[in-house]
TrEMBL record:
InterPro entries in UniProt: DivIVA_domain
TM region positions: none
Name of this protein: DivIVA domain-containing protein
Organism per entry: Candidatus Avipropionibacterium avicola
Gene Ontology cellular-component terms listed: cytoplasm
BP GO annotations: cell division
Region (Disordered): 55-79
């Protein structure tokens, strides 16, 4: 089993490190780090949302494709 068979977690994103390039084009470390911070934050938000919805179980309203996700009662609650 490879490391990529497991679900991605916010901690995976926080802990990933990329090899530096010595020659040729590469990425600015600051740009990569900033993007990974955003990805980790979004994974945390989505994991919290999934956990919250899972707790509600059968009390959830039915979902219709194209309907979009419901807005949280308190958007700050998921951050």
């Amino acid at each position: 089993m490879s490391q990529f068979d497991e679900p991605l977690t916010p901690e995976d994103v926080d802990n990933v490190r990329f090899s530096a390039t010595r020659f040729g084009p590469g990425y600015r470390v600051e740009d990569v780090d900033a993007f990974l911070d955003r990805v980790a934050a979004e994974l945390r938000r989505l994991n919290h949302l999934v956990a919250t919805l899972s707790e509600q179980g059968p009390d959830l309203p039915s979902y219709q494709p194209g309907q979009g996700a419901p807005e949280p009662q308190d958007p700050g609650e998921l951050r």
